[in-house]
User: Fold this.
Amino acid sequence: MKKILAFSLPFLILSGCGSSSTWGWYVIDPRTNTGWINIKFLISGMGDTILISVIAAVISIVLGLLVALPALSNRWPVRMINRVYVEFVRSIPLLPMLFWVFYGLPIVFQSMGLNIPIDPFWGAIITLAISDSAFTAEIYRAGIQSIPKGQSEAAQTIGLNYGQSMRYVILPQAIRRILPPLANQFIYIVKMSAFASVIGMQELTRRANELVVTEYRPLEIYTLLILEYLVLVLIISAGVRWLERRMGSDER
Amino acid sequence: MTETAIELVGVNKWYGTFHVLKDINLTVETGQKVVICGPSGSGKSTVVRCINRLEEHQKGQILVDGVELTNDAASVNRIRSEVGMVFQQFNLFPHLTVLDNLTLGPVKARGLTKKEAEERARHYLERVHIPDQAEKRPGQLSGGQQQRVAIARSLCMEPKVLLFDEPTSALDPEMISEVLDVMVDLANEGMTMVVVTHEMGFARKVADNMIFMDAGEIVEHGPPEEFFGAPRSERCQKFLSQILQH
Assistant:
């Protein structure tokens, strides 16, 4: 009996338990004029959510590699650069970092005599990218270190320098192992981009919040919001699977 | 007149407090074949790896073609361009075809055109008797074929000296001879070679100088007839009797 209840509970909730006072889907009912306008308003945040996430992910992928490379050095002071960066950045919660970048960083710039305003869009991107780079750096490090040492030794003996050995020998092999966890990080960025709403970025979550304030229908609107993220993440997952298959197929 | 290809003078190396190489002195003339043997952990691989700076020695001198090996990147590059290396585990690049394995060094490090490098690659694949595997990936080849590709890859850099670090130790028995045949051919063509191996048949056939190492020292060296016929030291006698008894 308990099992049946547990299984049917989500359906009961979504169907409004049969009572029209719990649910008011009219607020996002595409058949009505206002419902359709509301839906369009909510979904139009998709563009910014995607844009912020993609730009932040690209920066994080490049920055993460730059942070990871010192970790592979033979010299400990160089390795320390990586350690300090990773430990420090990894320990800062996203929201405080976002506040610091958005409200604090312009003051730092000002005191240096620079006039660089930070708008919500770039504030969110910088924060997400830096925060994520500590994790991508660890992913790169693990991936590169998983390639047998003989590979870089062989590269050295045929005269390749460090950069060439990385580019032509190590990274092409490491990327297969790096890609799945890197994709996980991208999903993480998409979800964390919701924090951009608190500094005024008009992405998915912010729009949902705004509509809730005017319509006072949090349950329906936030349900739709969750579904929007679900769709985004499922699309990314499918893309990554396709990419993995494509990269895997020409190996061996 | 013979020229000195490699010279090691009083080379010492430590891993932490562990003394791996103790006062190694070794001269390899151009065209000479030197075979190094000894029990595992004796430092024989380390000697070879020091000659092309995969390991760093801490004391003494290593000269290749008259150039001293130092921390200076230019000297390391200069020496690596003259010294080829064949590894126990082949260390082919699994994500590249055989042909790309062979052309990567010549194109990226030597600035050959793709076409020149491919011609050279096919020439050396012919010499190691696998001209028809150029488009395959290393994983599709047998161990013996892989090691021959690895030898061809080294030859594509046209080195003056070839180092072999136990080239047949990772191979199935039936594949050892195909690799040794290629090495004998190279030896007969006058290549300067330093070979770490336990293949004593090969050693008898090609070696000009046999080196026996134990516990980081060169215990005994000499021409193979003398070395196999009448080993002077007890350690060397014991080692030879162990590996030759079957």
Observations:
- The beta strands of chain B are 4-15, 18-29, 33-37, 59-64, 67-68, 83-86, 161-165, 192-196, 209-214, 217-222.
- The first strand of chain B starts at residue 4 and ends at 15.
- Chain B touches chain A at residues 52, 54, 77, 80-81, 83-85, 87, 89, 91-95, 104-105, 108-110, 137, 139-140, 150, 153-154, 156-157 (CB under 8 Å).
